[in-house]
Amino acid sequence: MFMSLRRTPENTVTVTVNGQQITAPEGQTVWVTMALAGQITTRKSALSAEDRSAYCAMGVCFECLVQVDGLPNQQACLRRISDGMIIETQQITETTEAPLDDF
Ligand code: FES
Known about the structure:
The protein has 103 residues and is mostly beta strands.
């Protein structure tokens, strides 16, 4: 579905996307890394729990929110990957209980 126009990346890093280890060019965005790996669901709709994915790919729509290294609400289209990064589809929905004790 998606393919990179880069032929031979100079430096690569390894990240984990929903449990899948992926080696990708350093500096590539989280969204591009996910799309090239065939994982296009970035989050679940807060209301319907349906799959959502990147739309604008330029930081405007906030459809691409993912969890990065345990931190929710990271924009996959703007965030750059780094070695060892753990990226997960964000599962926050209307029924998610927030750990208010942490605040
Ligand atoms: S895809 Fe629109 S903000 Fe990331």
